[in-house]
Amino acid sequence: MSFDLVLFGGTGDLAWRKLMPALFQAFRHGSLPKDGRIVGVARDDLSDDQYRELIQSRFNAVEGAKRPSAEEFEKFASLLHYLRMDLSKPADYARLSDLLKQRNADTVVMYVATAPALFTQVVEQIAAAGLNGPSTRVVLEKPLGHDLASNRAINAAVCKVLDEKQVFRIDHYLGKPSVQNLFAMRFGNALFEPIWRREHIANIQITIAEDLGVEKRGAFYDQTGALRDMVQNHALQLVCAIGMEPPINSHADAIRDEKLKVLRALKPWTPETLGLHAIRGQYTAGTAYGERVPGYKDEPGVDPESRTETFVALRTEIANWRWAGVPLYIRTGKRLASRDARIEVNFRPTPHAIYRAPAGAVNKLVINLQPRDGLELHMLAQAQDNRRSNGHQSAAQLAPVQLDLDFDKRFGAERVGAYERLLLDVIDGRLNLFVRSDEQEEAWRWVEPLIDSWASDGGPRPYAAGTWGPSASSAMIARDGFSWSEEQ
Ligand code: BG6
């Protein structure tokens, strides 16, 4: 099979941080179809060779084992090409068309990794140049819009010229090995299904914590904030993976139909819950990696008066028969105490206690996404040091133990990173791990009351860099009698 992958935004941050390394890994693993071209598109005036040199120099920032040797890069570089384009000029799409017609590849992937404001224009121009035929697949990066109306406008423009089957809305969290394993664990094993419900589960916590600040993306981030950057997409996709009913088969639409139902079942916000169950914060100066770091307002590109949130904690519920009454907590933020992304499913305690157990110890399933991926099942087991007290055998003491499935150790070298997995899926035309337009709209619909109410309230609460966010986040969960995992 032959393919052409056109990378709009070919010199941008995403291209060199994520996409090129992922394409190289796929090449190295031998999973990228041999007969392929990767065409970087940007405004700079570069030759193919200069583009290859630029990409090679960027690879120096890639972590050791994933960096190509000179010999490997030379082979990979033969796939790389470059086309200078002004994305507003129809004549430049005609040049792109000429380039693509040289080969008429079986599959043409148009990866739109540009500023979101250009998405509609690029898609319309692709169609105007007649490049939207059945062999074309278009990949759209997030964020797709900044609210429900703008998301609908983009989707309407896209759906006018492309069939939904040609549109790959990417959410790289769906490509993470742990998320795929969450699906496998739930729908490939019978073990958890009977207890995956309100009768057995006390609460669910989703944490996506980053220790980094906004880095060089201050200007973008300041227009976006944690709700749009992480909650509307990544966190809500995790909610779907945890909460959805078993799909009738593994086809993309069967999966997406079930995810959509979860998003539709999320409890709508009320004035009361907006006040009590939605906390947002913004980091101030603090400590990260043992060093003083500046506050958000002092980051380059950020408005010194900014009201943008860098932390969000929410409490919600999936209002259906399986989940009614089970609190679902979502928390994400920048400059938190550690890089830690995980989903915790906390089970209910035993109905009657005959053992002594540490306070608060319950069964818990943890799906670790970051920094390592794996599954942990927390149980209680008989401690081996039972003492006799006053000549009597004391009530047996239980101690917490863990069953660990470390995917790094178990699957090591065979594992495929999120972008690598998703890029290969696009080339192969598999839509399972991509987001359908109605899902995306439903997610925007749910976050919209937060956007509206935050536009005019007192602003985000401050928290020091290197902590777990504003104390209101712990107070929110404590009102239900629970605590975040690092406080347990
Ligand atoms: C991106 C966000 O989608 O996800 C970034 O725009 C964030 O702000 C990143 O840092 C986190 O991804 P990961 O895979 O490092 O958890």
UniProtKB/TrEMBL annotation:
Domain Glucose-6-phosphate dehydrogenase C-terminal stretches: 184-484
Pathway: Carbohydrate degradation; pentose phosphate pathway; D-ribulose 5-phosphate from D-glucose 6-phosphate (oxidative stage): step 1/3
UniProt domain Glucose-6-phosphate dehydrogenase NAD-binding: residue ranges: 6-181
Catalytic activity: D-glucose 6-phosphate + NADP(+) = 6-phospho-D-glucono-1,5-lactone + NADPH + H(+)
Active site: 234
Enzyme Commission no: 1.1.1.49
Keyword ATP-binding carried by entry: no
Keyword RNA-binding: no
GO molecular function: glucose-6-phosphate dehydrogenase activity; NADP binding
Binding site for NADP(+): 43, 86-87, 142
Family statement drawn from the similarity comment of this UniProt entry: Belongs to the glucose-6-phosphate dehydrogenase family.
Free-text function comment from the UniProt entry: Catalyzes the oxidation of glucose 6-phosphate to 6-phosphogluconolactone.
Protein name: Glucose-6-phosphate 1-dehydrogenase
Name of encoding gene: zwf
